[in-house]
Amino acid sequence: MSMTASDLPLQAYVSYIELLAQWNSAYNLTAVRDPEKMIAYHVLDSLSILPFIKGKLCLDIGTGAGLPGIILALARPDTHWILLDGNSKKTRFVQQVVLTLNLKNVDVICCRVEQYEPEDRFSTIVSRAFTSLAEFFECSHHLLAPDGILLAMKGPEPENEIFELSTKVVSTRITPLLVPGVAGGRSLVEIVPKMLNHKFT
């Protein structure tokens, strides 16, 4: 899905950053304190994986302050997102964001992924700074729809983690991500589990 900056809900992103900066002093939601840096490290970083989102039902595991799920849900109102985190103070913040921004395509659930039992399976499952690739795969692959994909946002060199994962998956693909204002480099690791008989598109 091709989008330009003019297609994005820019005011909503500004409102999100304002809320995050306001709550952060009390709730310690993110180590990034500067609102200008939040735009790069949270909004632009989350948007960097927008072209990889597949299908309509998406799950953000370990969403923390709602990242990347809130940002992607705003960009793609045609998708529905479940934002999952076991930390109640973080899910309280994310629920406030949902109410403030009037997001109709987001549900927030305070629950560990190991205990999560949804009725439907997900076309896309994402994680950002959640855990290792092997652990991400272990706790989430059973939640995927038959044509689903796992997306893990990582640093610039995820090869060691992929090596640990190699016996558990059919294939992985690494895509370098260039995020304006973010130092150190980023990458996206796409994972297709063995039991799902499909390939990358």
What does this entry look like structurally?
- With 201 residues, the chain is α/β, with parallel strands linked by helices.
- The protein has helices at residues 10-27, 35-47, 69-75, 88-100, 133-140, 159-165, and strands at 57-61, 80-85, 106-110, 122-128, 144-154, 169-177, 186-193.
- A 7-stranded mixed sheet has the order 3-2-1-4-5-7-6, with helices on both faces.
- A hairpin with an 8-residue loop joins β6 (169-177) and β7 (186-193).
- α1 (10-27) packs across α2 (35-47), α1 (10-27) runs antiparallel to α4 and α2 packs across α3.
Strand order of the largest sheet: 3-2-1-4-5-7-6
The low-confidence runs, each spanning 5 or more residues with pLDDT under 50, are none
In N-to-C order, the SSE pattern is: HHEHEHEEHEHEE
DSSP helical segment count: 6
Mean pLDDT level: 91
Outline: globular
Largest sheet: 7 strands, mixed
Q: Which radius of gyration do the C-alpha atoms yield?
A: 16 Å
Helical amount: 25-40%
**Ends distance:** 13 Å
**Category from helices, strands and their pairing:** alpha/beta
| Percentage of residues in DSSP E strands | 25-35%
Count the beta strands.
Answer: 7
Q: What's the gist of this structure?
A:
With 201 residues, the chain is α/β, with parallel strands linked by helices. Helices cover 33% and strands 25% of the residues.
